[in-house]
Amino acid sequence: MRNYRVTVKDDQKHIVKGYIKLGGTNPKGEEIGFTNYFMEKDGEPFFGICGEFHYARYDERYWEDEIIKIKMGGVNIIATYIFWNLHEEVEGIFDWSGNKNLRRFIELCGKHQVYSMIRIGPFDHGEIRNGGMPDWLFGRPFEVRSNDEGYLFYTRRMYNEIGTQVKGLLYKEGGPIIGTQIENEHNHSSAQWALTVGINDMWLNSGSDGNSHMLKLKEIALEAGIDTPIYTCTGWGGATTPVPDMLPLWGGYAYWPWIYYEEGRLEGMNEHPATPEYIFRDKHNNKIPKSYNFEPQYAPEDYPYACCEMGGGMVQFYKYRFAFPYRSVPAMTVMKVAEGCNLIGYYMYHGGSNPRGKVNPFTNDLATPKISYDFNAMIGEFGQVRESYQRTKLQHYFFSTFQKQFSLTKTILPGDTSQMDPYDVDTLRYAVRSSAGSGYLFLNNFQDHAENYDLCDFNVSIELPEETIVIPSQGELTLARDSFAILPFNFNLDGMKLKYATAQLITRIEEDGEAYYFFFVPEGMKGTYVMESKDIISATIDKGSIEQLDGNTIIKVAEEEDSLIHLVSESGQKVAIYTMTDEQSLTFWKVNMQGRDRVILTNANVLVSEGDLRLESTDQEMVTLSVFPDFDASFTSISGGELLEITENNVFKTYRLKAPKKEIHFNLKRINNDKFTLDFELDAFHGIKEALLRIHYTGDIGYAFIDGELINDNFCNHTTWEIGLKAFEHRLIEQELYVYVSSIRKGKVLNSNTTMAGWKETTKESIVNISSVSLVPVYEIKITI
Length: 785
Prior knowledge:
Blueprint: E1 2-7, E2 24-25, E3 31-34, E4 39-41, E5 44-46, E6 48-52, H1 63-72, E7 77-81, H2 84-87, H3 102-111, E8 115-119, H4 149-166, E9 177-181, H5 210-223, E10 230-234, E11 247-252, E12 307-311, H6 328-338, E13 343-347, E14 352-353, E15 372-373, H7 387-401, H8 403-406, E16 410-412, E17 429-435, E18 438-444, E19 455-463, E20 468-471, E21 477-479, E22 484-493, E23 496-501, E24 504-511, E25 514-521, E26 528-532, E27 536-541, E28 544-549, E29 552-557, E30 563-569, E31 574-581, H9 582-585, E32 588-593, E33 596-601, E34 605-609, E35 612-618, E36 622-628, E37 637-639, E38 642-648, E39 653-658, E40 666-672, E41 675-680, E42 690-698, E43 701-706, E44 709-715, E45 721-724, H10 729-734, E46 737-741, E47 744-746, E48 749-751, E49 760-762, E50 765-767, E51 769-784
Parallel strand pairs: 1-19, 6-7, 6-13, 7-8, 8-9, 9-10, 10-11, 11-12, 12-13, 25-31
Antiparallel strand pairs: 2-3, 3-4, 4-5, 14-15, 16-17, 17-18, 18-22, 19-20, 19-21, 22-23, 23-26, 24-25, 26-29, 27-30, 28-29, 30-31, 32-33, 33-36, 34-35, 35-51, 36-39, 37-51, 38-39, 40-41, 41-46, 42-45, 42-51, 43-44, 43-46, 47-50, 48-49
Helix pairs in contact: 4-5, 6-7
């Protein structure tokens, strides 16, 4: 057996309050502030969980449901870019209507008790045309992203418009807006001026005037009334970070499409390299002033290590089309949090579609799809929930439930990790976060762009000043390929000491004088809890075994099924531990209904608001809803389905429901290998929440049109192309949907000595095939209690 060791000493984090001049108070007297390590709410640690969702890239009719869905994923802050070129495409004419109604979007965030961070630019990037700069700025005689007075004049006008839109919605006014990002990647990145042509390679500058420019932008924002507790800037790549006036935010992506456009970046390589993102570092340690993807221009321990762009996915670029592994996202969360991050942020959390412009119909970056901005995000372009959403949700519940204790823990590495090779997938990657001898062991077995394997037959010794905890003390650990885990040690279980568990903690709720803790067993592991026996007078388990050994109570749960442990302490405190398998955990939801926390198990997506519970299921009429504790009253009404039966076990009450089955009738007409049309009947979309068109094809790019207008596109990467059709329902009843797939042309030779009539192409082989087309319904059952 292979033993890994980590020495945990001096785990007392040096935390200073009042050092950072960021924060504010709302009319209720609630306060947001910072220590040098974490965000605070009313003087207590607050673990911020931020997800990016671009209002202008989504149909306003569906904003509210998607905001609820984001909140249900455990997110407590929604960040959004304000793209200047979408609001002032024509100089002097501002548009804040429809999908561009920033005010309504922020109001909806407030309605559902989610904070918001506005990213006000002027430069954003975000894979949008000119990085968000209006085309007409190119025709002005000044340098953008600088202190040129000509540029600042227009910036001031834009900021004043934003200030008007958010008036009354700021935190100090009782609104949800707690933060403002100034610019983006200033002095680091840029975007192509789309008004020019590609062979000119004309780009915006990457920014000039450094800190003075960023501080000038903040000054203009304040003058415009954009007064928020937090001001942030992006910190990576040597970007301008004017501390202490702004909090630098960090991030990390494991999929880098841009390298295929950078001369020399891939020299000598034929494929994307494995990135060092999945090797543990310590990013809040003055003794390690710089590390991979983290080169702050300040002492790391002076400010919190916080993130705004952890890769929640990645957009497809024309020259790099990858099948995105959704497990890379929760693995990234494990890495960043283990490294000392107490404020996490995903880009993107929710995908969308690029809106059509009035002057320029396509508002995308030139290397990306014209319309689709799905981003392989946790919630897709049409509201699809991915595995990354389900797994990060469990992590978010944990961080939020135990934020006061967890935020105090300090990163401890087993040694110097700076020279670790990302291609070494045989060596366990691990780290600890600990405070006063209690904490969490972080494990990772995910590496991008490498073939991972199960890691078997090992244990980990945590060497504390007074003891050494070996996990596990009996037997061995296995961590499945592409898996990761956060395992507690010396955890206070309501007065009983959990020495360690080979199960991951999710959350805690109370019911009838008993504390219920919910865990799941990470894939490949065997679930074991080791408790100090002196604290316990009674221990029982429904499925598993209990033994006493060396002063410890060792509880092993059944494999491949759930189990329930009941403990009673010497003081009479009752504690229950409910353990799920890895697969079962993907059905886990924590909700607050009727004034109390409840746990729900269901394969459907759960949306809770204003006393209603909605269950959203894709291509499944049957929905099972297990609830603990049970609702306080019977269902008042059910719409979109019917209740079939109610059953009960020793924890959950289970409701089995059914939505009316819907066949979406359409007429498919294949024109040839690369083209087809769809016609729909009058009631095709009635009685369902969404209709997902699924297309399996081989080719270069897929295009979908209604009456000649491009409504969606897809770069072929040999995964399923999905299009949500509900938003186009009325048009599709009257007009057909036309799909065209352009071919991959192998052996292509171009003769383009002139761009005019002399163009000629010869191709040895043309590859295109549409193998299958299907439509699946998304049902929604609404329960009023």
